[in-house]
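Box S1 | Example of a co-folding query
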Amino acid sequence: MYRNCVLRLGLGTPSTALSNLCNLSDMNPTRREFLLAAGCFALSPALLNQEKKPTRIILLGTKGGPRVAEGRSNSATLILINDVPYVVDCGYGTSRQLVNAGVALNRVRYVFITHHHSDHNLELGPLIYNAWITGQPIRVDVYGPPGLKNMTSDFFNYLKFDIDTRIEDEGRPDPRNLVIAHEFEKPGAVLTNDDVKVSACLVRHPPIKQAYAYRFDAKDRSVVISGDTAYSPELAQFAKGADVLVHEIMYLPAIEALIQRLPNAKRLREHLMASHTLPEDVGKVAAQAEVKTLVLSHFVPPDDPNTTDENWMEGVRKHFKGRIVVGKDLMEIN
Ligand SMILES: [Zn+2]
Ligand SMILES: [Zn+2]
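Box S1 (continued) | Returned holo structure for zinc ion
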């Protein structure tokens, strides 16, 4: 119970969250006082944190690649700005990870897709569906490269029977009217509202031409999410001076150990080298950008038992002398 309370309170205002905790007026005074005291004690770090940083970054899924397995969840990152959720990429498991992070799905307001590899978009439709079925009318604005509109409408066709049945049978609003897909095919400003300016930078992820990094400039913090990319000097420029850069990473010794027996090893290695970034180059990008904190995520390969956190960091450190965080699922970046 306390864990749920902490998460819920951490994401709401103190007064409403506390009243959500339980119906305190129905309790005898001793129990009520105990719960209030326990609640305040348990929740104060989260509340203090919220006061310090209106913009919060939580890694939902840190795995590179589409395979579903034990260990890291597929790619997704959450940015909460003044309590409004912005989700970057929707790999498989994103809905569950949002719930695990304490975010009710019908609060999801903005979604950004970096590119159309399935480890970044497989759960886009299901996330919108899950937000809708959670129970209250929502509006979700989704941003990404061309293909996004078709993907959204195709998903609604895929679930047409269920959606139409529930609208008729359960009196729900039509989810097709609650989602707006915004496609863009050039880098630049993507979204501006009172809280944040979001912009996109074209990155290098062949054979996909429309692959983007996103930058969130909020009032208190700036955050860049690399998406999938090979070493990209443009990204270093784009991330200049950011507080936090979340960058993908690939560790070659582990890749070579994994693929050596595959018949297509040579081809696979060439593909990976052309489209992902080695630790030394991640370090170069972070150093050129002069970011304060570098967060490693989208690990390729993910969950290799012989690769340690130190292995991921050692190449990076050759170039970047700032703070490095080896990302884990549900980790908050402070
Ligand atoms: Zn990927
Ligand atoms: Zn990709």
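The chain is about 40% helix and 20% strand. Residues 1-50 have pLDDT under 50 and may be disordered.
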